[in-house]
Specification:
mainly alpha; f41 fragment of flagellin, N-terminal domain; 2 domains; two-stranded antiparallel ribbon; 11 helices; 4 strands; rod-shaped
Protein backbone atom coordinates (compact mmCIF):
# COMPACT_ATOMS: atom_id res chain seq x y z
CA UNK A 1 0.00 0.00 0.00
CA UNK A 2 1.31 3.45 -0.95
CA UNK A 3 0.81 6.63 1.02
CA UNK A 4 0.65 10.16 -0.23
CA UNK A 5 2.11 12.72 2.11
CA UNK A 6 2.77 16.43 1.94
CA UNK A 7 5.80 18.31 3.12
CA UNK A 8 5.91 20.54 6.18
CA UNK A 9 5.97 23.76 4.14
CA UNK A 10 3.00 22.67 2.06
CA UNK A 11 1.17 21.66 5.20
CA UNK A 12 1.91 25.03 6.78
CA UNK A 13 0.62 26.82 3.68
CA UNK A 14 -2.56 24.75 3.71
CA UNK A 15 -3.21 25.51 7.37
CA UNK A 16 -2.62 29.24 6.81
CA UNK A 17 -4.99 29.23 3.86
CA UNK A 18 -7.69 27.49 5.88
CA UNK A 19 -7.14 29.94 8.73
CA UNK A 20 -7.41 32.91 6.36
CA UNK A 21 -10.58 31.61 4.75
CA UNK A 22 -12.22 30.93 8.10
CA UNK A 23 -11.28 34.39 9.42
CA UNK A 24 -12.60 36.05 6.26
CA UNK A 25 -15.87 34.16 6.58
CA UNK A 26 -16.12 35.01 10.28
CA UNK A 27 -15.53 38.71 9.53
CA UNK A 28 -18.20 38.68 6.83
CA UNK A 29 -20.72 36.97 9.07
CA UNK A 30 -19.96 39.31 11.98
CA UNK A 31 -20.48 42.30 9.68
CA UNK A 32 -23.78 40.88 8.41
CA UNK A 33 -24.91 40.22 11.98
CA UNK A 34 -24.15 43.79 13.04
CA UNK A 35 -25.62 45.54 9.96
CA UNK A 36 -28.43 43.14 9.17
CA UNK A 37 -27.44 43.29 5.48
CA UNK A 38 -25.78 40.73 3.28
CA UNK A 39 -22.11 41.43 2.56
CA UNK A 40 -22.21 39.46 -0.68
CA UNK A 41 -24.69 41.32 -2.85
CA UNK A 42 -23.47 39.60 -6.02
CA UNK A 43 -24.28 36.17 -4.60
CA UNK A 44 -27.69 37.32 -3.33
CA UNK A 45 -28.77 38.50 -6.79
CA UNK A 46 -26.69 36.09 -8.88
CA UNK A 47 -24.64 38.95 -10.23
CA UNK A 48 -27.65 41.04 -11.32
CA UNK A 49 -27.28 44.42 -9.62
CA UNK A 50 -30.06 46.14 -11.60
CA UNK A 51 -32.66 46.06 -8.83
CA UNK A 52 -30.35 47.41 -6.15
CA UNK A 53 -28.76 49.87 -8.55
CA UNK A 54 -32.18 51.24 -9.49
CA UNK A 55 -33.08 51.72 -5.84
CA UNK A 56 -29.81 53.48 -5.06
CA UNK A 57 -30.17 55.77 -8.09
CA UNK A 58 -33.67 56.74 -6.98
CA UNK A 59 -32.49 57.32 -3.43
CA UNK A 60 -29.64 59.53 -4.63
CA UNK A 61 -32.02 61.63 -6.75
CA UNK A 62 -34.53 61.96 -3.94
CA UNK A 63 -31.80 62.99 -1.52
CA UNK A 64 -30.71 65.70 -3.96
CA UNK A 65 -34.30 66.95 -4.20
CA UNK A 66 -34.57 66.87 -0.42
CA UNK A 67 -31.45 69.02 -0.07
CA UNK A 68 -32.71 71.44 -2.72
CA UNK A 69 -36.06 71.70 -0.97
CA UNK A 70 -34.31 72.41 2.31
CA UNK A 71 -32.32 75.21 0.68
CA UNK A 72 -35.45 76.59 -0.98
CA UNK A 73 -37.27 76.46 2.34
CA UNK A 74 -34.51 78.39 4.09
CA UNK A 75 -34.39 80.93 1.27
CA UNK A 76 -38.15 81.53 1.27
CA UNK A 77 -38.26 81.74 5.07
CA UNK A 78 -35.59 84.44 5.08
CA UNK A 79 -37.43 86.32 2.33
CA UNK A 80 -40.71 86.11 4.23
CA UNK A 81 -39.06 87.44 7.39
CA UNK A 82 -37.53 90.34 5.43
CA UNK A 83 -40.87 91.18 3.79
CA UNK A 84 -42.50 91.12 7.20
CA UNK A 85 -40.05 93.81 8.29
CA UNK A 86 -40.79 95.79 5.12
CA UNK A 87 -44.51 95.61 5.75
CA UNK A 88 -44.14 96.48 9.43
CA UNK A 89 -41.94 99.49 8.72
CA UNK A 90 -44.34 100.66 6.02
CA UNK A 91 -47.32 100.40 8.37
CA UNK A 92 -45.46 102.37 11.03
CA UNK A 93 -44.55 105.08 8.50
CA UNK A 94 -48.14 105.34 7.25
CA UNK A 95 -49.43 105.76 10.81
CA UNK A 96 -47.01 108.64 11.41
CA UNK A 97 -47.53 110.33 8.03
CA UNK A 98 -51.33 110.25 8.04
CA UNK A 99 -51.32 111.99 11.42
CA UNK A 100 -49.45 114.93 9.93
CA UNK A 101 -51.91 117.79 9.63
CA UNK A 102 -51.79 121.17 7.97
CA UNK A 103 -51.38 122.77 11.37
CA UNK A 104 -48.26 120.77 12.17
CA UNK A 105 -45.29 122.71 13.52
CA UNK A 106 -41.80 122.53 12.05
CA UNK A 107 -40.72 120.38 14.99
CA UNK A 108 -43.55 117.90 14.39
CA UNK A 109 -42.71 117.77 10.69
CA UNK A 110 -39.04 117.18 11.40
CA UNK A 111 -39.76 114.46 13.94
CA UNK A 112 -42.10 112.65 11.53
CA UNK A 113 -39.60 112.89 8.68
CA UNK A 114 -36.78 111.58 10.87
CA UNK A 115 -38.97 108.67 11.98
CA UNK A 116 -39.78 107.77 8.36
CA UNK A 117 -36.09 108.10 7.51
CA UNK A 118 -35.43 105.36 10.06
CA UNK A 119 -38.22 103.26 8.55
CA UNK A 120 -36.61 103.70 5.13
CA UNK A 121 -33.19 102.59 6.43
CA UNK A 122 -34.73 99.51 8.07
CA UNK A 123 -36.47 98.52 4.83
CA UNK A 124 -33.28 98.93 2.80
CA UNK A 125 -31.39 96.82 5.32
CA UNK A 126 -34.03 94.07 5.15
CA UNK A 127 -33.93 94.01 1.36
CA UNK A 128 -30.18 93.42 1.54
CA UNK A 129 -30.72 90.32 3.67
CA UNK A 130 -28.58 87.31 2.82
CA UNK A 131 -29.01 83.61 3.46
CA UNK A 132 -26.14 81.18 3.13
CA UNK A 133 -24.01 83.97 1.69
CA UNK A 134 -26.56 84.65 -1.05
CA UNK A 135 -28.47 87.91 -1.43
CA UNK A 136 -32.19 87.20 -1.20
CA UNK A 137 -33.63 90.05 -3.30
CA UNK A 138 -30.95 90.58 -5.97
CA UNK A 139 -32.24 88.13 -8.56
CA UNK A 140 -29.52 86.02 -10.15
CA UNK A 141 -26.78 88.33 -8.79
CA UNK A 142 -26.75 86.67 -5.39
CA UNK A 143 -23.13 87.56 -4.64
CA UNK A 144 -23.80 91.22 -3.78
CA UNK A 145 -26.35 93.55 -2.14
CA UNK A 146 -29.73 94.03 -3.76
CA UNK A 147 -29.87 97.81 -3.44
CA UNK A 148 -27.64 100.73 -2.52
CA UNK A 149 -27.57 102.05 1.03
CA UNK A 150 -30.33 104.34 2.27
CA UNK A 151 -27.89 107.25 2.51
CA UNK A 152 -26.70 106.72 -1.05
CA UNK A 153 -30.24 106.62 -2.45
CA UNK A 154 -31.28 109.75 -0.56
CA UNK A 155 -28.13 111.55 -1.70
CA UNK A 156 -28.97 110.77 -5.34
CA UNK A 157 -32.55 111.94 -4.82
CA UNK A 158 -31.35 115.19 -3.28
CA UNK A 159 -29.48 115.90 -6.51
CA UNK A 160 -32.60 115.02 -8.52
CA UNK A 161 -34.82 117.48 -6.58
CA UNK A 162 -32.26 120.27 -6.21
CA UNK A 163 -33.88 123.67 -6.73
CA UNK A 164 -37.48 122.37 -6.66
CA UNK A 165 -39.87 124.36 -4.46
CA UNK A 166 -43.18 122.52 -4.49
CA UNK A 167 -44.30 119.13 -3.18
CA UNK A 168 -45.73 118.30 -6.62
CA UNK A 169 -42.43 118.94 -8.37
CA UNK A 170 -40.48 116.96 -5.78
CA UNK A 171 -42.87 114.03 -6.07
CA UNK A 172 -42.61 114.08 -9.87
CA UNK A 173 -38.81 114.07 -9.71
CA UNK A 174 -38.79 111.18 -7.20
CA UNK A 175 -41.25 109.21 -9.34
CA UNK A 176 -39.04 109.72 -12.37
CA UNK A 177 -35.92 108.62 -10.48
CA UNK A 178 -37.59 105.39 -9.36
CA UNK A 179 -39.76 104.55 -12.38
CA UNK A 180 -38.04 105.79 -15.55
CA UNK A 181 -36.40 103.08 -17.69
CA UNK A 182 -32.65 103.31 -17.12
CA UNK A 183 -33.41 105.95 -14.49
CA UNK A 184 -31.62 106.52 -11.22
CA UNK A 185 -33.06 103.50 -9.42
CA UNK A 186 -32.21 101.07 -12.20
CA UNK A 187 -28.69 102.40 -12.69
CA UNK A 188 -27.66 103.34 -9.15
CA UNK A 189 -30.33 102.19 -6.70
CA UNK A 190 -30.95 98.58 -7.64
CA UNK A 191 -27.67 96.65 -7.63
CA UNK A 192 -29.07 93.19 -8.37
CA UNK A 193 -29.71 91.44 -11.67
CA UNK A 194 -32.67 91.89 -13.99
CA UNK A 195 -32.50 88.11 -14.49
CA UNK A 196 -34.63 86.27 -11.96
CA UNK A 197 -33.22 83.65 -9.66
CA UNK A 198 -33.54 80.19 -11.21
CA UNK A 199 -36.34 78.23 -9.50
CA UNK A 200 -35.22 75.54 -7.06
CA UNK A 201 -35.64 72.01 -8.45
CA UNK A 202 -37.29 70.34 -5.45
CA UNK A 203 -38.74 67.28 -7.21
CA UNK A 204 -38.75 65.33 -10.45
CA UNK A 205 -41.46 67.63 -11.79
CA UNK A 206 -41.60 70.16 -8.95
CA UNK A 207 -40.06 73.62 -8.68
CA UNK A 208 -40.08 76.41 -6.10
CA UNK A 209 -40.02 79.88 -7.62
CA UNK A 210 -38.81 82.50 -5.12
CA UNK A 211 -37.88 85.15 -7.66
CA UNK A 212 -38.98 88.28 -5.78
CA UNK A 213 -36.44 91.08 -6.21
CA UNK A 214 -35.95 94.57 -4.81
CA UNK A 215 -36.78 95.88 -8.30
CA UNK A 216 -40.33 94.50 -8.23
CA UNK A 217 -42.97 97.20 -8.47
CA UNK A 218 -44.40 96.51 -5.00
CA UNK A 219 -41.03 96.99 -3.34
CA UNK A 220 -40.04 99.84 -5.62
CA UNK A 221 -43.22 101.75 -4.73
CA UNK A 222 -42.58 101.08 -1.05
CA UNK A 223 -39.09 102.54 -1.30
CA UNK A 224 -40.42 105.48 -3.31
CA UNK A 225 -43.02 106.43 -0.71
CA UNK A 226 -40.62 106.14 2.20
CA UNK A 227 -37.89 108.06 0.39
CA UNK A 228 -40.32 110.81 -0.51
CA UNK A 229 -41.04 111.51 3.15
CA UNK A 230 -37.45 110.86 4.28
CA UNK A 231 -36.23 113.64 1.98
CA UNK A 232 -37.84 116.16 4.31
CA UNK A 233 -35.39 115.07 6.99
CA UNK A 234 -32.61 115.79 4.49
CA UNK A 235 -33.79 119.40 3.97
CA UNK A 236 -36.26 119.06 1.09
CA UNK A 237 -38.57 122.10 0.80
CA UNK A 238 -36.86 123.66 3.79
CA UNK A 239 -38.68 126.51 5.52
CA UNK A 240 -41.91 125.91 3.58
CA UNK A 241 -44.05 124.15 6.16
CA UNK A 242 -47.11 123.97 3.93
CA UNK A 243 -45.27 122.19 1.10
CA UNK A 244 -43.47 119.87 3.52
CA UNK A 245 -46.77 118.82 5.09
CA UNK A 246 -48.23 118.20 1.63
CA UNK A 247 -45.20 116.10 0.69
CA UNK A 248 -45.53 114.00 3.84
CA UNK A 249 -49.26 113.53 3.27
CA UNK A 250 -48.70 112.49 -0.33
CA UNK A 251 -46.06 110.01 0.81
CA UNK A 252 -48.52 108.57 3.33
CA UNK A 253 -51.24 108.17 0.68
CA UNK A 254 -48.76 106.48 -1.65
CA UNK A 255 -47.65 104.01 1.02
CA UNK A 256 -51.23 103.32 2.04
CA UNK A 257 -51.98 102.09 -1.47
CA UNK A 258 -48.93 99.81 -1.39
CA UNK A 259 -50.09 97.95 1.72
CA UNK A 260 -52.54 95.62 -0.02
CA UNK A 261 -49.97 94.72 -2.67
CA UNK A 262 -47.42 93.88 0.03
CA UNK A 263 -49.94 91.48 1.54
CA UNK A 264 -50.53 89.84 -1.84
CA UNK A 265 -46.80 89.49 -2.41
CA UNK A 266 -46.28 87.84 0.97
CA UNK A 267 -49.29 85.58 0.41
CA UNK A 268 -47.81 84.45 -2.89
CA UNK A 269 -44.54 83.64 -1.18
CA UNK A 270 -46.48 81.82 1.55
CA UNK A 271 -48.06 79.62 -1.13
CA UNK A 272 -44.59 78.72 -2.37
CA UNK A 273 -43.51 77.92 1.21
CA UNK A 274 -46.50 75.60 1.59
CA UNK A 275 -45.65 73.88 -1.70
CA UNK A 276 -42.06 73.36 -0.55
CA UNK A 277 -43.24 71.84 2.71
CA UNK A 278 -45.66 69.51 0.93
CA UNK A 279 -43.06 68.30 -1.57
CA UNK A 280 -40.52 67.86 1.23
CA UNK A 281 -42.95 65.60 3.09
CA UNK A 282 -43.66 63.58 -0.05
CA UNK A 283 -39.95 63.19 -0.75
CA UNK A 284 -39.26 62.05 2.80
CA UNK A 285 -42.03 59.45 2.47
CA UNK A 286 -40.59 58.14 -0.80
CA UNK A 287 -37.09 57.95 0.67
CA UNK A 288 -38.40 56.00 3.64
CA UNK A 289 -40.29 53.56 1.40
CA UNK A 290 -37.28 52.94 -0.83
CA UNK A 291 -34.97 52.46 2.14
CA UNK A 292 -37.36 49.88 3.55
CA UNK A 293 -37.48 48.10 0.20
CA UNK A 294 -33.68 48.12 -0.02
CA UNK A 295 -33.38 46.79 3.51
CA UNK A 296 -35.77 43.95 2.73
CA UNK A 297 -33.79 43.03 -0.40
CA UNK A 298 -30.45 43.00 1.38
CA UNK A 299 -31.52 41.79 4.81
CA UNK A 300 -30.27 38.55 6.33
CA UNK A 301 -31.78 36.19 8.92
CA UNK A 302 -29.89 37.04 12.14
CA UNK A 303 -30.49 33.60 13.64
CA UNK A 304 -29.08 31.82 10.59
CA UNK A 305 -26.08 34.14 10.46
CA UNK A 306 -25.45 33.70 14.19
CA UNK A 307 -25.52 29.91 13.79
CA UNK A 308 -23.10 30.07 10.86
CA UNK A 309 -20.80 32.38 12.80
CA UNK A 310 -20.79 30.01 15.77
CA UNK A 311 -19.93 27.09 13.46
CA UNK A 312 -17.04 29.06 11.93
CA UNK A 313 -15.74 29.97 15.39
CA UNK A 314 -15.81 26.29 16.32
CA UNK A 315 -13.85 25.41 13.18
CA UNK A 316 -11.29 28.10 13.97
CA UNK A 317 -10.85 26.81 17.51
CA UNK A 318 -10.43 23.27 16.17
CA UNK A 319 -7.87 24.46 13.62
CA UNK A 320 -5.93 26.33 16.31
CA UNK A 321 -5.96 23.27 18.60
CA UNK A 322 -4.82 20.98 15.78
CA UNK A 323 -2.08 23.39 14.74
CA UNK A 324 -0.85 23.69 18.32
CA UNK A 325 -0.76 19.90 18.73
CA UNK A 326 1.14 19.40 15.47
CA UNK A 327 3.69 22.05 16.44
CA UNK A 328 4.61 20.01 19.53
CA UNK A 329 5.38 16.80 17.57
CA UNK A 330 9.00 15.57 17.52
CA UNK A 331 10.89 12.58 16.07
CA UNK A 332 11.03 10.97 19.53
CA UNK A 333 7.23 11.33 19.90
CA UNK A 334 6.83 9.75 16.46
CA UNK A 335 9.09 6.77 17.17
CA UNK A 336 7.71 5.94 20.62
Amino acid sequence: MSYVSIGDMAQTYMIRRQNSQLKETATRLANELSTGHTADVAKRFSGDYSVVSSLETSLTSLQSYKNAAKEAGQFSTVMQAALEVVQGQTTAAVSALLLTRNSASQTQIDNTAISVRQNFSAVVSSLNTQTGGRSAFAGAATDGPAIASASSILADLQVAIAGLTTATDVETAVNTWFDAPSGGFETDGYLGSTTSLVPFKIGAHQEADVSITAADIEIRDTLKGLALAALVSEGALASDVTEQVLLLQNAGDSLLSVGSRQIEMRAGLGTVEGHIELVTTQTATEISALEIAKTELLSVDPYTVASELEAIQTQLETLYATTARMSRLSLVDFLT
